[in-house]
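Q: Could you predict the 3D structure of XdhC family protein?
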Amino acid sequence: MENLDVVVLRKLHEWRAAGLRAMLVTVVRTWGSSPRPVGSIMALNELGSVVGSVSGGCIEDDLIDRHTRAYAQDADSARHAHSMPSGPPSLIKYGISADEAHRFGLPCGGTLELLLEFDPEPAALRDLLTRLEAGQLVQRTVRLTDGQVSLLQADAPTELSLDADHLSNTFGPEYRMLLIGAGQLTEYLATMALFSGFAVTVCDPREEYRGAWSVAGARLVSDMPDDVVRDFKPDRRSCVVALTHDPKLDDLALLEALDSEAFYVGGIGSRRNNEARRARLIEHFDQTEASLTRLRGPIGIYIGSKTPPEIAVSVMAEILAVKNGVTLPRDMAVAQAKNERDTPHHAPDDLVCGLPSRQA
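A: Sure. Here are the predicted structure tokens for XdhC family protein:
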């Protein structure tokens, strides 16, 4: 599944290029609880079609009612129906009163402010999409007096900013995930990554595993993992996860990934397996404890998972937390939780280390 921002922008460009009137809606401020974060976007055309979201649906319905002909019931009402405004961007707030919060399905006390851009220029939208498709991180700035748009390549993601004159929002290429190994766990993790908006590449030189691969939408390659990591060129919007349990495949790939800007690098395995991996990398590949600081393992958060789909949920949750800049409590780390859990009445998972049916 594509990055949601790209989906919205592409559909908006399609509408505008076809001559339809449309607007781009951006969440620019929130107070209290809010259904969607600052920077979220949606697009709406004059016929009432919507892509993306800024709430749970009620605000979208109100925008359709205010700005399109979609709710006109007959010819007479159509003549008097609201039509898409034109002119410079405008700001609108929802949820200021308790009644509005209830009406629009906002959490108690929630308020959000939206910027409405009317009839964005197709050429500027196409330019933005071209840059994003080329892998650029782009800062889009809108002049509030007239809606004029400027695009600049950005060096790093930044928070949305709004002042009296301009709105600036950063759009980036989709997040990418490289998975080493095409086993059953990988199928579940790849599926979750796809519906979370990641572009997924799976690498496995073993023909018997590639032959059983069945996840549509994930790119499957057969080269050696370390070569694939180099060609993948992980950046700050990339993660690399080794899932084969085979040191010949996992170790070199992880070393290459640690030498990149990937925001997440981790390998499957029990506590004992991960300790053995770190010892190998230090002994045979001149690594140090400091150079392995970014290497995650055991990967995932502790949810007591036993089966491949449960382990995939655990790993995906940790990846999303790191992506979103959330610091997880220490007792949610797999190793920490299992160390505290182990008592004379609990056999350590190290006794069955390497089995894919145990949490990473």
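Q: Anything worth pointing out?
A: Residues 4-171 form one domain.
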